[in-house]
Amino acid sequence: MQGSDKQVSRESGGRADKLGNRYEDYWAVELLLRLVDEKLEYLIIEPLGKDEEGTDILTLEKSGNKVFYQCKGSNTYKDKWTLADLNSSGILKNAFKQISRGEINYFKLVSSVGSVDLNELHDRSKDGSDSLEEYKERIGIGSQKSPSQRIKDNFCKVTKYLELDISKDEDILRMQNFLSRFEVILYPDNSHTKMQLLDKINLMFSNNSAEAVRNDLKSFAIEEDYLGTPIYYKDIIHYLEMNSIKLSFLEKDKTINPKINEINRKYIDCLLYTSPSPRD
């Protein structure tokens, strides 16, 4: 990494001061673990330039897709994100802007509260094999056989928020493209989530305290001056080695990956059990 790039990070007005013991740090550790497990090409914490708008962390997936993550530990006192909340907070338009910048771009809001309304639209839009007419039927536009009046109303709300015209087929296609690549990831800010994270760390690293490894990963970007610059596998591995943190031999231990998968499955099951009702 060239020195001039890191100088930009240093001079960006107290960006390092924003980081600390906060919700975003835990999601950053989750993604750094994915990088260590070679599931990502790189990630950027606090990206710069156009990538910065509405984005806390940016990843380049092995598939070639770019994922823009915005982390919100809460939605003030509310127990969900309504479409109106996503609009008034600027999240909706930031997501639309980032997704519109490229065909490989995805946007994910990571939050301790979910959005049933947004994710229903996402689920109905992500099957790209639909024809335009089939998609219209799935969302209840221009069809007497509406799957749900609420889904149709919600689609119309988002279209209006983004200043698109529901009477134009090209805008409906833009909506499908946008909604298929925007979703809310439920990541509760509680002790259970943090224990799940420590369990993953215990399986991936040997002879180290899971909490110590987590804290080292949380502070990596600041200590090594990587805010705003890509973090590659070699960078994080070098940092871990310098801190005497040893990886388990994942390729030799056939029991570790199934255990990690089981932790993830139990975590997802817990989220499904505790998810809010679709009703407002």
Explain what the structure shows:
By secondary structure, this protein is α/β, with parallel strands linked by helices. Helix content is 51%, strand content 13%. The protein is built from 13 helices and eight strands. A six-stranded mixed beta sheet has the order 5-4-3-2-1-7, with helices on both faces. The protein has a two-stranded antiparallel ribbon with strand order 6-8. It is elongated. The termini are far apart. Residues 1-17 have low confidence and may be disordered.
Instruction: Give me the Rg, rounded.
Output: 20 Å
The largest sheet has its strands arranged as: 5-4-3-2-1-7
Number of helices: 13
The helix/strand order is HHHEEEHHEHHHHEHEHEHEH
Global geometry: elongated
User: Which whole number gives the mean pLDDT?
Assistant: 84
Oligomer: single chain
Output the structural class: alpha/beta
Beta-strand share of residues:
5-15%
Helix content: 40-55%
Question: Span from first to last CA?
Answer: 48 Å
Q: Main β-sheet, in a few words? A: 6 strands, mixed
- Number of DSSP strand runs: 8
Ranges with pLDDT <50 over ≥5 residues? 1-17
What's the quick description here?
With 280 residues, the chain is an alpha/beta fold. Helices cover 51% and strands 13% of the residues.
Provide keyphrases for this structure.
two-stranded antiparallel sheet; elongated; alpha/beta
Helix-strand blueprint:
Blueprint: H1 3-10, H2 15-18, H3 23-36, E1 40-45, E2 57-61, E3 66-72, H4 83-88, H5 91-100, E4 105-111, H6 116-125, H7 132-139, H8 149-161, H9 169-180, E5 182-186, H10 191-204, E6 205-206, H11 210-223, E7 231-232, H12 233-242, E8 246-247, H13 256-274
Parallel strand pairs: 3-4, 4-5
Antiparallel strand pairs: 1-2, 1-7, 2-3, 6-8
Helix pairs in contact: 3-10, 6-9, 10-11, 10-13
